Amino acid sequence: MSLPPAPPPPALFSRRPYWARRFGVAPVLPMSRAEMDALGWDSCDVIVVTGDAYVDHPSFGMAIVGRLLESQGFRVGIISQPDWHSTDAFTELGRPNLFFGITAGNMDSMVNRYTSERRVRSDDAYTPEGAGGKRPDRASIVYAQRVREAFADAPIVLGGIEPSLRRIAHFDYWSEKVRRSILLDARADLLVFGNGERQIVEIAHRLGAGETLADLTDIRGTAFIRKATPAGWIEIDSTEIDTPGPLNPPIDPYAMEPEIKAANAANSAQAAPLEPGVSVVRFSRRVKSEDRARSVIRLPAYEAVRDNAILYAHASRILHLEANPGNARALVQGHGDADVWLNPPPIPLSTQEMDGVYELPYSRVPHPRYKDAKIPAYKMIKFSVTIQRGCFGGCTFCSITEHEGRIIQSRSENSIIREIEQVRDQVPGFTGVISDLGGPTANMYRLHCRSPAIEAACRLPSCVYPGICSNLNTDHAPLIQLYRRARSLPGIKKILIASGVRYDLAVQSPEYVKELATHHVGGYLKIAPEAIGEGPLSMMMKPGIGSYDRFKALFDRYSLEAGKEQYLIPYFIAAHPGTTDQDMLELALWLKANGFRADQVQAFLPSPMATATAMWHSGKNPLKRVTATSEDVIVPKGARVRRLHKAFLRYHDANNWPILRDALKAIGRADLIGSAKHQLVPGWQPAGTGGAPAKEVTLAARARSLRSGGRVLTQHTGLPPRASSSKAAAPRSPKRAR
């Protein structure tokens, strides 16, 4: 049963501009009172507080939000990387007329600040000169608290990837506990989740028209606090949609009426109080089609998921099942005496709306305040162009699932070409090479479900696992046409593809692989098998290694035909749920057999709300119905096992040989200790080595992984047999997170 089609939202650029449109377009959005005065502003309508350096480029969230609101007629100021130890920096632009928009930045602040082993990083790719320590832990909360101290009554709207991944009760890897929704800790009024263009435009226009925060409870893609379920809504218990086990005594169908009422009361005890007149449906899996638009699913309360890992995994499963904008229902989760209410996800942007967003008047350079300071993340995306959003891969470790969603939103070819010409003609230092045409993936441009009706009704978490859905259009022809047209532009010497290629899709189009290998690879191409064992692959929802082999055969063939020596660089994840020591041993042997030596590695990092994080926390598989007796998942926790799994990826590092020798003996594979070609580690140990931790990823390697929205990968430099490692892979541009 699917949700009746929702009325289409207003087109993003269809509203009458706000009166402040008369001030025109700012060269860059102001970061000081002096800049406001130069623009003739007495105040800002919206102030965006961000944990990133302000770069006026569409790869940076504050730039997209600021320029979009400017196009709607609002005056937008930026407070970038404020000193959070006092309120001084938060008062520099005064009180906004409408609201403060607060974001931690393009990256989650905890992922940005800490390694997967919880060690503090010394650098930050989104800060001038890569300096570390310029944003606080849990930046969204800290910034919101300072704004509350400075302006107690100012509306606060949270947005970006950090609050998006923390909109309900979530497992926090850094504190090893389940934390409540970030809305309560930040004391914010609204939370915008997912790509936020539709939400932020509607919020600004409605507040500008005189509505209050209490009126803004019907905006898709937002979450907020309310005391009770409003009258007229039908409330459904999530444990009846997808029963997580014998949590409460079952109701005896032969019991007398008073006993049934008593059982109902017991099962409903954790629900928040309801307003008078509310309709409630309990213990029913379905409601009538015409009632679905006003039905809300009650998740187990924060206190319940905090204390019961099985309930946590169940709540995670329900949230992911209710993620398709075409059929998702509202969700509600109790937190003490209040409810966190999540409206359904936002309707994806149309091609025309995507074009409009990416063709706003960005200066495409950092704010002049930074002068000649180098911002590493900007350096990576300076000459790149975004062509699409979203990813239907559904990888369980990847935060794109919870943030951008699985429906692909593509720009038009003409719009992309115009942006390439703008980069060529206007961006300082351009040498003729576009560093990337991509998005969350390189090759999902214009791929979609063949049937809009099926797409709107589908609840599957992936369109390509366990195999490619028969309803999925996998035609790469529009992307091939885009590549050909882009590289034929005057002044364009090379178009590189730095976004990760989804190789199981690419093999559906050998012509695409030929185009890629012949024209768009700079010697090395990144792809992400992540693992080779069926156990971890099934928990990741990734294809088997056979797809990699088929892609490699095509890639090698077309590279040879083009007369080019080119190599694939595979990414792998260490210590992912579902991974055993034996799995990592098999991967190490595969790496050695294929001539790969991992230069840098990092273990799985459980990002908030990811399905793999629910596995990590609960030891259960939420890809299936979760019960006390349902499928258990092996979780490689603990410093020693995580270090061991990283060591398998760097089998060639003498510092790892002692722990690998111990592990090989423990799993009965001492035959792999020795200096023969088929053996993994030698039996001797060089002087001055033995047991140092595997090398952590560098700033540049981490920034290359940001497109996944919090996903942490094992970064490799692939070495074909007897090949040199001097040539590095093309950098991956940062995640375009809003």
Question: What would you note in describing this structure?
Answer:
The chain is an alpha/beta fold and 738 residues long. The chain folds into three domains: 31-227 and 337-360, Rossmann fold; 237-331, no CATH class; 383-653 and 694-708, pyruvate-formate lyase- activating enzyme (Alpha-Beta Horseshoe). Helix content is 30%, strand content 12%. The strands form seven sheets. The chain has an eleven-stranded mixed sheet, sandwiched between helices. A two-stranded antiparallel ribbon has the order 5-6. Strands 14-18 form a two-stranded parallel ribbon. The protein is globular, with a radius of gyration of 26 Å. The two termini are 32 Å apart.
Backbone structural class:
alpha/beta
DSSP, total strands: 23
CATH superfamily of the largest domain: tm_1862 like domain
Largest sheet: 11 strands, mixed
CATH topology (fold) name of the largest domain: pyruvate-formate lyase- activating enzyme
